[in-house]
Amino acid sequence: MPELRWQKSSYSQEASACVYLATAPDTTLRLRESDEPDVVLHTSRAALAALIATVKKTGRLRRGALSSGHSPTGA
After folding, report:
1. Is residue 71 classed as helix, strand or coil in its secondary structure?
2. According to DSSP H, which parts of 1-75 are helical?
């Protein structure tokens, strides 16, 4: 798998609490955070957009909002 180009979220202020996003060659999205960079969430643009809309609307996360699971980097 080609190296992913990670972009830090503009909302990540502190070096120890950063969220990163990358687009994989298959166009799915990858998310990770600086505290556990080997744990990578895989999701679609639609699922991430739904998660963001839900959080904006309710101010809360709902269980399974990304619904794509996670796996170690490179898996």
Report:
1. strand
2. 45-58
For residue 59, what are its two tokens? Answer: 């101010």
47 phi and psi angles, rounded to 5 deg: -65, -40
| pLDDT given at position 34 | 86
Two tokens at 27?
Answer: 């166009």
Do residues 16 and 46 lie in contact, with contact meaning Cβ atoms separated by under 8 Å? no
Tell me the per-residue pLDDT of 48-74, one tens digit each, with 9 for 90 and over: 898 889 888 888 766 655 554 444 444
Is 55 in contact with 28 (CB distance < 8 Å)? no
Task: Tell me what pLDDT residue 70 has.
Answer: 45
Q: Please, which contacts does 44-51 make with residues 24 or more away whose CB atoms are closer than 8 Å?
A: 44/68
**Cα(12)–Cα(6) distance, rounded to whole angstroms?**
13
